[in-house]
Amino acid sequence: NVRVANDARELVVNCCTEFIHLISSEANEICNKSEKKTISPEHVIQALESLGFGSYISEVKEVLQECKTVALKRRNPEEELLRQQQELFAQMQQAAQQAQLAAASASASNQAGSSQDEDDEDDI
């Protein structure tokens, strides 16, 4: 519940933007030195350390862990749905095989019954 002047808000936004550019530029240099093409969280942590912002590292690592946890939770439902779908397909396939076996058994039983009836008629 604090009122902030527009100039002050703009200054804070500009400072945040500059801070992000500073960290990302340093992380990019570290990334290039390690002959990588993608900036990783480790590059960002190294950039914070080299620029004198080491006091932020523990909090950054906590946030990184939270992000990984959220990403894992987001991925798991999709993986779980895929697993359930595959399980349902397997159950349907098994049910279809059982139905085919039952139909084949019934057909064989009917044929055996029909030939038995024919044999009985011949005896008369």
Blueprint (SSEs and pairs):
Layout: H1 6-33, H2 41-50, H3 57-123
Helix pairs in contact: 1-2, 2-3
Tag the structure with descriptive keywords.
124 residues, mainly alpha, Histone, subunit A, 3 helices, elongated, CBFA_NFYB_domain, RNA polymerase II general transcription initiation factor activity, TBP-class protein binding, Protein Dr1, Ncb2
Overall description:
The protein contains 3 helices and no strands. By secondary structure, the chain is mainly alpha-helical. The model has no long low-confidence stretch (mean pLDDT 88). Helix 1 crosses helix 2 and helix 2 packs antiparallel against helix 3.
Instruction: Estimate the mean pLDDT confidence.
Output: 88
Determine the structural class based on helices, strands and strand pairing: mainly alpha
Q: Flag low-confidence runs.
A: none
Name the beta content range. under 5%
What distance separates the N and C termini? 106 Å
Helix content: over 70%
Radius of gyration: 35 Å
- Main beta-sheet annotation: none
Order of helices and strands: HHH
Query: How many domain modules?
Result: 2
Report the strand count: 0
Q: What is the 3D shape?
A: elongated
Continuous helix count: 3
GO biological process, one term: RNA polymerase II preinitiation complex assembly
Subcellular location: Nucleus
Protein name: Protein Dr1
InterPro entries: CBFA_NFYB_domain (IPR003958), Histone-fold (IPR009072), Ncb2 (IPR042225)
